[in-house]
């Protein structure tokens, strides 16, 4: 095999230059080695060029972005930020929304399957500690032994008369709220859903992470919902935290496109298993004993976000296509700060500012808030969400803090921030529907908020009261005078939210142009 001549013949400079000597090819390099080396170098150059190109694109995007209107969605965890973002997309970019809607199917399936698995975990715990589950309804020996009338009970003067045949049979039947072998069977038949949950998590790929029982995920992000807390308390100990970034959508072949054949078949497999469990899922959720068991264990999944068990029959079909309402009700916790470009397809687009916005959706839990800061400097507007239904709830990341109080403290720090002095701030007093439901169920506001006093314990009065409180703080603490925009919302109501957002958009554009002296 031909060897190359000495290095000095080809690389005379190498003799004098230690750096060139270090990176020069070996003197006795064979032809094959040379070809391999050159191929490696070409590949390294391609990667380096790709990196340079990426940096160039980012720099260009940054320059372009500088001219775009930037809206920051802020508020505590589960205040409705991501749901509001979905409403922006649905209202102003309906075509893009339509294309993306199908890609939410796997996330909704995962929300549903997780609820089922939470119930199954509780059921497994319960079945493990209770004496062997009774058979559901085994025939009594008396009724199988003879078809004739049972013998008359022997009279007794000391104690109650022994049960008659019918009474005896009734006594053998488990009480409606008791777990039986039927539940053991249900648990076994629904076991494949654990695999489906795992598969869907894998399919959603980098978008998912586990949250440990102490409430922190792999990044130390705490989870802050009754649902998560209940889940963490459940036997599983770990909670799933989905990152609301684009990666899961790409994994699912976002923008309505189907993924690769392999991904597609994984999704089909999950759908197939879920469809096969359809009747059992419905039976599990409709079962009195299961409901009683959940009540006993204080697991209220029906109050948790991303709860779809009431609609399981619709969602567990093979043909299931998510509706707009399904998508806005899905729970997908945001981790970090996610950037979205909203290209307006509707509304007046005469001005450049009305054509495209950048929206930042942030994770709202306490430990995520430090990540908001770098985005403040550049923001044109802030949409702050304060959930009004949570006056009787505590932060899961700090069980000493009332959630409404946390919202209020956060609001104060936002409105008084000097960095945000030029920002237009819009407030959504959100989750009004849940507030109304809670008050109707008899929860008393002044038990948790003594300052509310003996005002009427109804939703409009409370919303007005809070609107006033937030507005006062805005007026008193803002570093410069600015207008206050406050709305009472239920952002799961897409129709009502569409008209609110239309007015928010017009107001923001108007304010922006006024500030820039363009009107
Ligand atoms: N009933 C009702 N549910 C709501 C409302 N707003 C949001 N939700 C639900 O509450 C859950 C949490 O909403 P998200 O938009 O994910 O909350 P977030 O503020 O983005 O939360 P993080 O990402 O954890 O910061 C979702 O399942 C929503 O469907 C509302 O006004 N009414
Ligand atoms: Mg979110």
UniProtKB/TrEMBL annotation:
Q: Where is the composition biased (Low complexity)?
A: 131-148
UniProt feature, compositional bias: Basic and acidic residues: 32-50
Q: Which residues take part in binding GTP?
A: 430-433
Pfam families annotated for this entry?
Answer: G-alpha
What Gene Ontology molecular function terms does this protein carry?
A: G protein-coupled receptor binding; G-protein beta/gamma-subunit complex binding; GTP binding; GTPase activity; metal ion binding
Give any Gene Ontology cellular component. cytoplasm
Q: Which UniProt keywords apply?
A: GTP-binding, Magnesium, Metal-binding, Nucleotide-binding, Transducer
What GO terms in the biological process aspect are recorded for it? Answer: adenylate cyclase-modulating G protein-coupled receptor signaling pathway
Q: Where is the composition biased (Pro residues)?
A: 149-163
- Which residues take part in binding Mg(2+)? 334
Region labeled Disordered — which residues?
A: 25-50, 131-183
Q: In its UniProt entry, what is this protein called?
A: G-alpha-domain-containing protein
């Amino acid at each position: 095999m031909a060897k190359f001549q000495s290095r000095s013949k080809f690389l005379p400079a190498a003799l004098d230059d230690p750096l060139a000597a270090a990176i020069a090819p070996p003197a006795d390099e064979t032809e094959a080695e040379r070809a391999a080396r050159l191929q490696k170098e070409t590949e390294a150059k391609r990667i380096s060029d790709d990196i340079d190109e990426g940096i160039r694109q980012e720099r260009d995007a940054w320059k372009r972005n500088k001219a775009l209107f930037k809206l920051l969605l802020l508020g505590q965890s589960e205040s409705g930020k991501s749901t509001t973002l979905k409403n922006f997309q649905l209202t102003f970019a309906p075509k893009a929304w339509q294309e993306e809607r199908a890609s939410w199917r796997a996330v909704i399936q995962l929300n549903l399957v997780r609820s089922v698995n939470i119930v199954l975990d509780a059921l497994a715990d319960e079945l493990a500690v209770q004496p062997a589950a009774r058979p559901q309804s085994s025939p009594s020996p008396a009724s199988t032994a003879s078809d004739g009338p049972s013998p008359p009970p022997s009279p007794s003067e000391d104690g109650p008369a022994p049960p008659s045949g019918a009474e005896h049979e009734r006594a053998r039947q488990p009480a409606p709220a008791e777990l039986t072998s039927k539940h053991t069977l249900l648990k076994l038949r629904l076991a494949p859903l654990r695999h489906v949950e795992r598969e869907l998590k894998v399919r959603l790929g980098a978008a998912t992470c586990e949250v440990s029982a102490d409430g922190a995920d792999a990044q130390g992000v705490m989870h802050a919902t009754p649902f998560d807390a209940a889940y963490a308390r459940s036997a599983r100990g770990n909670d799933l935290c989905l990152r609301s970034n684009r990666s899961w959508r790409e994994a699912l072949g976002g923008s309505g496109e189907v993924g690769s054949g392999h991904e597609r078949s994984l999704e089909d497999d999950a759908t197939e298993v879920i469809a096969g469990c359809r009747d059992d899922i419905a039976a599990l959720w409709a079962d009195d004993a299961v409901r009683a068991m959940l009540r006993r264990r204080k697991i209220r999944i029906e109050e948790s976000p991303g709860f779809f068990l009431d609609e399981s029959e619709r969602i567990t079909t093979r043909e299931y296509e998510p509706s707009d309402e399904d998508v806005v009700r899905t729970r997908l916790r945001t981790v970090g700060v996610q950037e979205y470009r909203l290209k307006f397809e509707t509304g007046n687009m005469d001005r450049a500012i009305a054509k495209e916005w950048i929206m930042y959706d942030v994770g709202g839990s306490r430990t995520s808030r430090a990540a908001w800061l770098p985005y403040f400097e550049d923001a044109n507007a802030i949409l702050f969400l304060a959930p009004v239904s949570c006056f009787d709830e505590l932060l899961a990341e700090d069980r000493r803090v009332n959630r409404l109080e946390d919202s209020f403290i956060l609001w104060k720090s936002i409105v008084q921030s000097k960095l945000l002095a030029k920002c237009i701030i819009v407030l959504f007093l959100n989750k009004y529907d849940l507030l109304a439901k809670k008050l109707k169920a008899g929860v008393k506001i002044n038990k948790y908020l003594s300052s509310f006093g003996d005002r009427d314990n109804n939703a409009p009065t409370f919303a007005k009261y809070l609107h006033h409180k937030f507005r006062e703080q805005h007026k008193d603490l803002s570093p410069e005078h600015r207008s206050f925009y406050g709305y009472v919302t239920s952002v799961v109501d897409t129709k009502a939210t569409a008209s609110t957002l239309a007015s928010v958009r017009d107001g923001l554009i108007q304010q922006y142009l006024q500030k820039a002296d363009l009107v």
